[in-house]
Amino acid sequence: MSEATFLKDGRLERAGLSPLLSAVLGLMAAFLLFQGISAVVLVGFTIMSGVALADLMTQTGLSDFLTEHADIVIWSNTIGQIFGLLLPGLWFARLHSSTVRSFLRLRRVPVGMVVLAVIGLLALIPLVQWTATLFDGLPWPQWIRDMEEGQMVLIEQVLMQDFSLLFTISMLALTPAICEEILFRGFVQRQAERRLGAWGGILFSGIIFGFYHLRLTQAIPLSLLGIFMAWLTWRTRSL
C-alpha cells in the first residue's frame, strides 16, 4: 500500500522518528501499560472484594479466588487491554498522522473477501495445530513448562465459570480482537511496512505477535497466525 494514503503530519513525523523505532517503542509502552494496568486493577478489585492479598500467595488461595471471583480477573484483563493496547495504538497512530483511519486502514472490504479470509483461516488451523504439537514436544526447560502450566491453569479456571454468552464473547473474544488488531496489524504493521517493505512488515508484525503472548512453546504457531492475519491486512488494505 502506498504511504500516500495517509498524511504524515503528526508530531513524531515532524520530529523525524524512524517508523520502525516508533513501532518498537509503541510495543514496549503497550506491554508495560497492559501488564501494569491489569495488575493494579486486579489488586484494586481484590481489595474491594474483601480478599486479603496474602491469601493469594498460596496455590489454594489463588485457586479459590479464581473460582469465586473469575469475573474480577476478566475485568482486570479487559481494562488492561483497552488502556494498555487499544488506546496506546490509537495514540501512537495519531502522533504520526491526523488521518488515523487511513493510517490504521480502517475501511470496509467486500463480503466475498471476508468469506475467502475465513476459508483461509480454517485451512491454516491444521498446520497451526500440527506446529503447536511439534514445538510443545521439544525439550523445553522446566521453568518454562512451569510458567506455562500456571498460565493454562489460570485460563482454564476462568473459562470454567458460568458466564453469560454475551459476557464471554465481549470480554474473551471481541475486546481482545479489537485491541490486538489496532496495535499489531494497525499501528505496528503499518510502521514496519514503511521501513521494511510489505513482506518485511508482514513478517515483523506476525512474529512479534507470536512472541508477545509470552508462551514460548507456542510462539511459532502463534506467529503463523499473526503472519497470516498481517498478510490479510496488507492484501485487503483493511484492518
Would you kindly provide a written description of the structure presented here, covering whatever features stand out?
The chain is 78% helix and 0% strand. It has 239 residues and is an all-alpha fold. Helix 3 packs across helix 7 (165-212). It is globular, with a radius of gyration of 19 Å. The model has no long low-confidence stretch (mean pLDDT 87).
What Rg, in angstroms, do the CA atoms define? 19 Å
User: How would you spell out the order of helices and strands?
Assistant: HHHHHHHH
**Could you state the oligomeric state of the chains shown?**
single chain
> What does the overall shape look like?
globular
Query: Number of helical segments?
Result: 8
Q: What helical percentage do the residues reach?
A: over 70%
Query: Strand fraction band?
Result: under 5%
Largest sheet: none
Average pLDDT value? 87
Which stretches are low in confidence, meaning pLDDT under 50 for 5 or more residues running? none
User: Structural class, from helix and strand content?
Assistant: mainly alpha
Strand tally: 0
Report, as a whole number of angstroms, the end-to-end distance: 13 Å
